Amino acid sequence: MEMSAISQLTPIRTPSVNKPTPAEVSQEFSSFLSDAVNKVNQAQVESSNLADKFAAGEITDLHQVTVAGQKASVMLQMTMQVRNKMIESYQEIMRMSI
């Protein structure tokens, strides 16, 4: 009796999801990396501008300058680590035998 109940079940069909093409994934990843590098550059420029203003006496809050400098430094270090991991991954893929 239980077998007939199981046999009556129909497989659940999942709706087809539009899968992105490799070109679309590549473009999306490329734009993500470009945005990340641009943000790092903006943080570096902001840190440099604040340091210049502090040196000129236009800003008296040393904490603001220090925080901006550390933020830019951490962002750059993270970017470099991501770059290093990407290079390692590429080298590992190239070492794979087919």
From TrEMBL:
Keywords: Bacterial flagellum, Cell projection, Cilium, Flagellum. GO terms for molecular function: cytoskeletal motor activity; structural molecule activity. Residues 1-19 have a biased composition (Polar residues). Belongs to the FliE family. PANTHER family: FLAGELLAR HOOK-BASAL BODY COMPLEX PROTEIN FLIE (PTHR34653:SF1), PTHR34653. It comes from Brevibacillus fortis. One of its GO terms (cellular component) is bacterial-type flagellum basal body. This is Flagellar hook-basal body complex protein FliE. GO terms for biological process: bacterial-type flagellum-dependent cell motility. The lineage of its organism: Bacteria, Bacillati, Bacillota, Bacilli, Bacillales. It comes from the Bacteria. It is found in: Bacterial flagellum basal body. The keyword Transmembrane helix does not apply. HAMAP family: FliE. Residues 1-23 are annotated as: Disordered. Its main location: other. The keyword Hydrolase does not apply. Signal peptide: none annotated.
